[in-house]
Amino acid sequence: MATNSVSLYSLEYKSARTYWVAALFIVGNIALPQLCHLVRLGGPTMLPIYFFTLVAAYKYGWKVGLLTAVASPLVNSALFAMPAPVALPAILIKSLLLVAAAAYTARRFRTVTLPMLLGVVLFYQVAGSAAEWALTGSLAAALQDFRIGIPGMLLQIFGGYLFIKYLK
């Protein structure tokens, strides 16, 4: 008999485990973008800065997700100038929307499915693109993820599903 069970956690800020888990996801969100940036347009196409944020928030709750979402782009920008400081507000907004959607969905449904992750990714991308448009005044910049970032969104949905489902 097949089961759709998955282990989901809600870690607290007072727990050292929260910071260790978040640190691992932050390292992932530093390493994956570096790998993607080895390929021309790898960052904008694969959207790697969001991958481990999605997994962190869905699997370990909003607190680990929040630590990952805020630290990852700031550390990447400070160490590698990617993302560029001018792009940080939009990336941080999208990251926070991703945390909210992923943590809410995980808590509400207590399982993971591909359609749920599709909904999470579409929510943060649509709402985040609207916020980016408001910030920049550029619809073209706001829609860049939808123009060239579809592979990254698919990576988040399918790769995120595998990580969330099978990460112990």
Can I get a quick summary?
It is built from nine helices and no strands. By secondary structure, the chain is mainly alpha-helical.
What do you see in this structure?
The protein has 168 residues and is mainly α. It has a single domain (16-166), classed as Arp2/3 complex 21 kDa subunit ARPC3, CATH 1.10.1760. It is 75% helix and 0% strand. The radius of gyration is 15 Å and the shape is globular.
Number of strands: 0
What's the number of structural domains? 1
Helix-strand string: HHHHHHHHH
Number of helices: 9
Mean pLDDT: 95
Main sheet?
none
CATH architectural name: Orthogonal Bundle
**Protein structure class:** mainly alpha
Strand and helix map with partners:
Layout: H1 16-36, H2 42-46, H3 51-60, H4 62-80, H5 88-109, H6 114-136, H7 139-142, H8 144-148, H9 150-166
Q: What labels describe this entry?
A:
168 residues, mainly alpha, Arp2/3 complex 21 kDa subunit ARPC3, globular
